[in-house]
Amino acid sequence: MPRYFFHFRSPHKTLPDREGTVLADADTARQNATLSVQDFFQPSTGCIDPEWEDWSVDVRDESGRCIIALAIADCGHLKNLDPPQGNDARASPGVVYLDVVRARRELRSQANQLHEQLRRTRALVDHHCYAANCFYQSLRSVQQAQRRSRELLARSREQAFLSWEVWPEA
């Protein structure tokens, strides 16, 4: 079976497919190119991301002959096509659907942000627990100092009262 290469090009940059994908024939390669172009359309808006508007996909066979060239922005009528079913889905294992890749990347990014927020939250909780413990210890020290002060004051009043009784009246 022949190998087909899916090269993405813009006026300023080229993303060559160095590995290629083994497919049954040129028609299957055309179908996969169409599916690849669909992946650039945002499901929520039905529009293409502006940074991909001037890009195209060129599918070439092993000899370098161009099988199909699709401008991504010109394929708006293809955005609602369904992915291959049955045997067609198994015939193209090397095709990477960009929606899945994008979703994984977004989920990974959100998971990383969540882990960072959890780490910060744990650090804040630990800090607040430490501060609360310090406050509790300070409060106990103040209460103990108050109790000792009251006891000292009570003893000194008793001693003062006793000392007045001991002194003879003149």
Strands, total number: 5
What global shape is seen? rod-shaped
Q: How many angstroms does the end-to-end distance come to?
A: 129 Å
- Based on helices, strands and strand pairing, what is the structural class? alpha+beta
Nearest-angstrom radius of gyration?
Answer: 39 Å
Q: Overall mean pLDDT score? A: 80
Largest sheet: 5 strands, antiparallel
Q: What's the quaternary structure here?
A: single chain
Q: How much beta, percentage-wise? A: 5-15%
Number of spatially distinct domains: 2
* Total helical elements: 3
> Low-confidence runs (pLDDT<50, min 5 residues)?
79-93
Q: What is the string of helix and strand elements?
A: EEEHEEHH
Helix content: 40-55%
Describe the structure.
- The protein has two domains: 3-96, no CATH class; 97-170.
- Strands 1, 2, 3, 4 and 5 form a five-stranded antiparallel sheet that branches.
- The model is unreliable at 79-93 (pLDDT under 50).
- It is α+β, with helices and mostly antiparallel strands and 170 residues long.
- The chain contains three helices and five strands.
- 51% of the residues lie in helices and 13% in strands.
- β1 and β2 (14-15) form a beta hairpin.
Task: Please provide a brief summary of the model.
The chain is an alpha+beta fold and about 170 residues long. Helices cover about 50% and strands about 15% of the residues.
Descriptive terms for the model:
alpha+beta; 170 residues; 3 helices; rod-shaped; 5-stranded antiparallel beta sheet; 5 strands
